[in-house]
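Please, structure for the following, as tokens.
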Amino acid sequence: PRKRNACARYLMARWKGTDLSAEYPFCDRMVILSEALKYAEGKEIDYSRLKEISNRDPQAIVLMLLHSISKNNLRQSAEFAFRLLRSVGEVEVSSIRSRGSFGVENFVDIVKNEDSSDHIKDAETLIQKLVELRNSASKSPLITYRDPEILRLYFGERHCKAFAGRC
């Protein structure tokens, strides 16, 4: 039988690059994917929605960070970098081939890193690395961190029911 819970649908939507957030507005990852797809199309993202989600899911902070770096808004980028590192402790940044909007591969594609990665624990170093990658026409960052959401996706249905009250 096909899984119909939001977590299974999120993985399918990410793999296909489709937006299912209208069907699953309670799923944070689905909303983040929806905003990332807007970003990939060159549209503006909804910061207010993402800021609300960022208190629960650092992936929203990653999207806001990459979007602000692409817009060359370094003040806002520093704020997001600090929040990300405060929430996850350490990030790993590696470069991958760019396929469009800066860093969108973190959300839309399922990719592997191609180069060695840097373990970063401070916001200033993170901003420097991202700006360096932004200035490279063919490279985009892949930001990884210890993400408890992967376990939630694995135990999807149970987590959705406990957290959002539905699945």
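The first strand starts at residue 91 and ends at 97. The chain is about 55% helix and 10% strand.
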